[in-house]
Amino acid sequence: MSATAASPSAAVPGLGRRIGSLRKERRWALLTAYISLVVAAIVMLAPPFYMLITSLKTSAEISDLSGTPWIVRNPTLDNYWALISDPMFRGFFFNSVKITVCVVAITMVISVFAAFSLARMKFFGSGVLATGVFLTYLVPDTLLFIPLYQIVGNLGLLNSIWGLVLVYPTLTVPFCTWIMIGYFASIPKELDEAALIDGANWMQMLTRIFIPVALPGIIAATIFAFTVSWAAFVYPTAFITRPDEMPLTIGVVSQLIRGDTFAWGQLMAGALLAALPPVIVYAFLMDYYVAGLTAGATKG
Amino acid sequence: MALDATTATAGPAMAPARPGLTLQRFARRRSTIAFLMALPLITVIAGLVAWPAGYAIYLSTLNRRMTSFIGLGNFEILLDSETFLMVIWQSCFFAITAVVLKALLGFWLAHQLHHIPTKGQRIWRGLLLLPWVVPPALSTLGWWWMFDPSYSSLNWILNAIGAPSVPWLGEPWWARISVIIVNVWAGTPFFMIMYLAALKSVPDQLYEAAAIDGATGWQGLRYVTLPMMRNIISITVLFSLIVTFANYDIVRVLTNGGPRDLTHVFASYAFQVGVLAGNIPRGAAVSLFMFPLLAIVAFFVLRGVNQRSKEMA
Amino acid sequence: MAQVSIRKVVKEYEGGVQAVKGIDLEIADHEFVVLVGPSGCGKSTTLRMIAGLEEISGGEIAIGGGVVNDIPPRDRDIAMVFQNYALYPHMTVYDNMAFGLMLRKFDKAEIRRRVENAARILDIGMLLDRKPKALSGGQRQRVAMGRAIVRDPKVFLFDEPLSNLDAKLRVQMRTEIKKVHQTVKTTTIYVTHDQIEAMTLADRVVVMNHGVIEQVGPPTELYHRPATKFVAGFIGSPAMNFIPARLEHGSGALNIHLPDNIVLPVPEERRSRYASYAGKEVLFGIRPEHLTEIRPNDHRPNLAPLHLTPEVVEPMGMETLVHIWLQGTEISARIDPAIPAEPGRPLALAADMGQMHLIDPQTDRMI
What we know:
The complex is a heterotrimer of chains A (300), B (313) and C (367). Chain A has 300 residues and is mainly α. Chain A contains 15 helices and no strands. Chain A folds into 2 domains: 2-50; 78-298, MetI-like (MetI-like fold), CATH 1.10.3720.10. Chain A has helices at residues 2-55, 59-63, 78-84, 87-121, 126-138, 141-154, 161-167, 169-185, 189-198, 202-213, 215-231, 234-239, 248-255, 264-284, 286-298. Chain C is an alpha+beta fold. Chain C has 2 domains: 4-227, P-loop containing nucleotide triphosphate hydrolases (Rossmann fold, 3-Layer(aba) Sandwich); 241-366, CATH 2.40.50.140. The model of chain C has no long low-confidence stretch (mean pLDDT 90). The chains are: A mainly alpha (300), B mainly alpha (313), C alpha+beta (367). Chains in contact: A-B, A-C, B-C. At the A-B interface, helix 1, helix 4, helix 5, helix 6 and helix 8 of A face helix 2, helix 4, helix 5, helix 6 and helix 7 of B. Chain A: InterPro entries: BP-dep_ABC_trans_perm, MetI-like, MetI-like_sf.
């Protein structure tokens, strides 16, 4: 009797301990997860945070070495006002806007047409071209900037934003085409057949069916083209030396650093202002941004 | 059939509605339209990628004034120079270390992010992705300021916990580490987001089945997660290897190659030689040294992509 | 509205694979024709050639008398309902139905009139502002039909329209399709792999197999007088039993000798038809519903009793299906559920020899 009673009671605490340890294990896992994420978030956000803090300081406070540099005691927006009222900085901004608008428009037209053609219509050599698109996507800008420097120079477009508008599509078109091919290819074939029977021609099929249906893809590709052409650095650094034709990235890096006494507050303010448009787009369209980022790998 | 008379007239009346537009011509016209639609893309690839690539090879065979052909002379000179050998070493060291760190940290973070309740994932993802969103040239400016020899806020933290100050950009090894730190900081979110997408695509039932088969958490990771993610891990790593290897922004802003040209990578050295020093052919040759490695990596990426699409089909 | 003529139509894919091997079919105005057959039999290819979505490799197709071989789909005046409905996901139900008319530059009032009329016929008036995502499977099906109806085309083409629906809804939509056809009377060509759908919907059924037409006819004719073994086995559920047999003369009669020494008499009126096959191997075909229990006061002529031992018994409620193995051939019978049947216990059954079929095993055609 004692034997029969003992074995279940021995089993039950064992089971109980397992359940307890399972719960404990889960709690530990969750704790580890949150600790990792908090640490990661601090590290990830510290530089932008410190840039913001610095940008709110006066030069006097920046050069004051007593106390922690991580807080601001007398916040001021002077650095921002100084930049906004500076015609050169405003020039950088407008150059960036002009370049980005042109490049995004050119990119989207080229890649939507090409992706539609490659995903749906097929022609002699279209398979090779699709692979070629992917390969050009893998070519980094630093591999070709020297020959492009020569080519742009021969066209007389050095020191002109139009030279940048000409070469930026190498950065944007391959990836945008690639993800648009993925989005278009995921549209069921019957949809074009229905449209064909409904009487649509190719152009109508693209504009009335494919573009609206693949709108998330269009948005993702547009965001990508925008981010890339806003952040491009190698080409403007190589092609532009005259401040009035500079976009923001190289403008902030090269023109706001003067002499040895750096105006750190203004420099940080400039960097933050320049980074603002992509961050705003990201804040509002994060899901499309992430979709575009992962589409290249998951759709390929 | 009485209808025959009417339909016989209706028939021919219908065909000439589009005279001569037969289905075959319809198909031929279709491929013409398709080609025209792809033509701008072909122009971009041919004019701005293929042609410059060929032109780069031609340029690299010229002398400094671009007046005479010197064959592989530029490459020979480069391989004889100690600075350039250092550039090769530094580029490889930088790319490999940075990519390995990004891959590990990205995987760790993706894994942790995947394990917290779904509701909170969005906000964490939003915060952690921020470094990827800020244009790298601009965020590197922030790091540069944090590394500043006299005002370094990082050294302030080190001093606060009793550690000595670090000569971040002043000493070659620390400068190399600094460049890697910034690159890892900026690139980890990309890995995290790719891995998170891959983790989400592994069906939960697989883990449940593995758990019932007696797998521990670690074994689940080893035998379920990693095999399922193998392809996306390799594609992401290879892709990042290309981008990191060819990186320019961070080195340009942070060290500009210094101290004493000891932190140059291919891109910044090519810029230095080709654009700043005005030796275009030599600069082109420096850039072209990246090509073999990129070709190898591209080969593996393409193979991975093909395998993936085959598995999915 | 129009008749459709298919003359010697061939579809050959690259590499010489023939999906359709020269079929002829005349479809009359207002007719509802169903193409039925197993997957890969060429039925969908035929439909897509009529629609203009596949090129015709040989022969010709005429709609309303005019040959359409070289006319692109949009100018053929046809409408098609797809298996996955192919509704435009970004458009409302109204816009989905109006799209084809809009592209054809109909004026707004006319579009509205037609869409509302179709919505009334299909009872989807309250859904017009919704997007397809917000619709159930049956509702999407109706919208897809509505898109076809508003165009008032010469021919409706249906490509397995019900196979994405669950069983219950499928029956309901089947009735719906029949009702719509009775209302609008447009010539309809309907493709399905489901023989029950074919039987219930069609004026005429076209049974296809391996790219050729096996038989064309009204549903009852196909059921009672199949032309080939394939049609006999394809139409009717559960399928007809085929038993290897021998035809022998015996004492002034013609008898069918089955395995296990079962002998069944050929009815008198069929003796002359089968006489030439005496002494030869044949296939004896009989449907499960013609192999039943012996009923009291059964006045069907030509009943032949036989004793068989079921191995599997499947009660279905309104009937019981029993499965018997006769030397490697499985045969099934449908019996009254009130009859106690259990595996291993012999049952007294009756074969209705008036409904029997004989197949020449050489040609697989009916004798």
